[in-house]
Amino acid sequence: MNKNIKNILNKKNKSKLVCLTAYSKNIASILDKHCDIVLVGDSLGSVLYNYKSTKEVTLNTMINHSRSVRLGVKKSLMIVDMPHNTYRNPKEALKNAKLVMKKTKCDAIKLEGGKKILPIVKKLVKNKIPVMGHIGILPQTDKKFTFKGKKLLERNRILNEAKLLESAGIFSIVLECIEIELSKIITKKLTIPTIGIGSSVNCDGQVLVVDDLIGLSDSKFRFVKRYVSIKKIINEAVKKYKSEVLNKQFPKIKNSFKN
């Protein structure tokens, strides 16, 4: 087993796990100093490419960004999202997951879904490809983005799927927008770590989209917390640069070349 995955498993019930998304080397190298997990999320579809949904993200796009992220990740566990329609059956999933692992040198891949993906998870794990699960809101397939676990039937289904995915061999699972008490129950019942996004402090760890955290996006999701407004910082820097160019203050001699 990958030593970083072992470290993640060992933190269950001991220490909270810190996870953020990254799509390039520069950001990844900063996150690597602080995160247990760096996720190359298919959220890059909306964050970077302004797609209406993650369904438009391609395998090649994920691979290219992941290769860049890999250059910045030295100590954290690096996980790559398998994009929509790249794991519709065990055969397709294995072929594409192998390609992602080979081209990106990532530590693991992440799949969205419950019962439907159990045969896929088993196939990948059998072939020594580490898998992180993802239940609750499933951005790749859900049409409505409302929190999960309102009714008893839904709560039982989600809990059961979490257990089945663990039995199938996943080493960790993302809980997206799952009701507080249900998140607590799932986290207690599973022996693997749960990573929450909009699923309360009861999870073993937390993940956010880094662009939301630094205020580069205009995300209004309830579960987002903005820790800084990088837009303001960039705006001030560009404003100062413009002023210096217009007033012939930049470039100075030290920024130029002379025989």
How would you sum up this structure, described in words?
By secondary structure, the protein is α/β, with parallel strands linked by helices. It has a single domain (3-228), classed as Phosphoenolpyruvate-binding domains (TIM Barrel), CATH 3.20.20. It contains 10 helices and 8 strands. It has helices spanning 3-10, 25-31, 44-47, 59-72, 90-104, 118-126, 152-168, 180-189, 210-213, 230-246; strands at 17-21, 37-40, 77-81, 108-110, 131-136, 172-176, 194-197, 205-208. The protein has an 8-stranded parallel β-barrel, surrounded by 6 helices. Helix 7 (152-168) packs parallel to helix 8. The protein is globular and about 70 Å long. It starts with a helix and ends in a 13-residue tail after the last helix. The model has no long low-confidence stretch (mean pLDDT 97).
List keywords for this structure.
41% helix, eight-stranded parallel barrel, TIM Barrel, alpha/beta, 259 residues
Mean pLDDT: 97
User: What series of H and E elements makes up the topology?
Assistant: HEHEHHEHEHEHEHEEHH
* Distance linking N and C termini: 58 Å
Largest sheet: 8 strands, parallel, barrel
Shape verdict: globular
Radius of gyration: 20 Å
Give the CATH level 1 class: Alpha Beta
